[in-house]
Amino acid sequence: MANERTYIMVKPDGVDRGLVGDIISRFEKRGYKLVALKLKLASEELLREHYADLAGKPFFNGLVAFIGSGPVACMVWEGKDVVKTGRRMLGETDPLKSLPGSIRGDYAIDLGRNVCHGSDSVESANKEIKLWFNEDELVNWNASLYKSIYE
Ligand code: UDP
Ligand code: MG
């Protein structure tokens, strides 16, 4: 459905490298609608919750420390099949396995510096959007270009 939403977050490595604009641009040009956007220094508590499914993995503490080490650019994008398409636009978790043309395939090499997060299911997206944004930060608006994007 065209009102599906996903949580996309440029990680501190991506923010530091000046990739926020490019990543926003890719989602805009694809035809998705931006419904929330902010820069944030995330607390350890928030990051432990965000990555809760990975607690216990050997890289968990390092991951939480790194994502909290600098600002992240948090956004919510809306449109048809945006969760799955967003993941395809990101590439694989491992940048070296990601095809050129994808965000990670174009900009990253190491697993722990893969530039951008994207929700892996509609269920995770709903959880992550609630975790990172207050309801009043999500803007409902009509994109005039939708008539040129959707048939
Ligand atoms: N990660 C890592 N080492 C690993 C696996 C994952 O540093 O062996 C990091 C990587 O940055 C990844 C994040 O942990 O993006 C979350 O892992 P997940 O499996 O959820 O991958 P994603 O959903 O981001 O593709
Ligand atoms: Mg994940």
From TrEMBL:
Catalytic residues identified in the record: 117 (pros-phosphohistidine intermediate)
Binding site for ATP: 11, 59, 87, 93, 104, 114
CDD domains associated with the record: NDPk_I
Protein name per the record: Nucleoside diphosphate kinase
Keyword list, A-Z: ATP-binding, Kinase, Nucleotide-binding, Transferase
GO biological process, one term: CTP biosynthetic process
GO molecular function: ATP binding; nucleoside diphosphate kinase activity
Species this protein is from: Trichoplax adhaerens
All copies of domain Nucleoside diphosphate kinase-like, residue ranges: 3-140
Similarity comment text for this entry: Belongs to the NDK family.
Enzymatic class: transferase
This protein's record includes keyword Nucleotide-binding: yes
Cofactor section: Mg(2+)
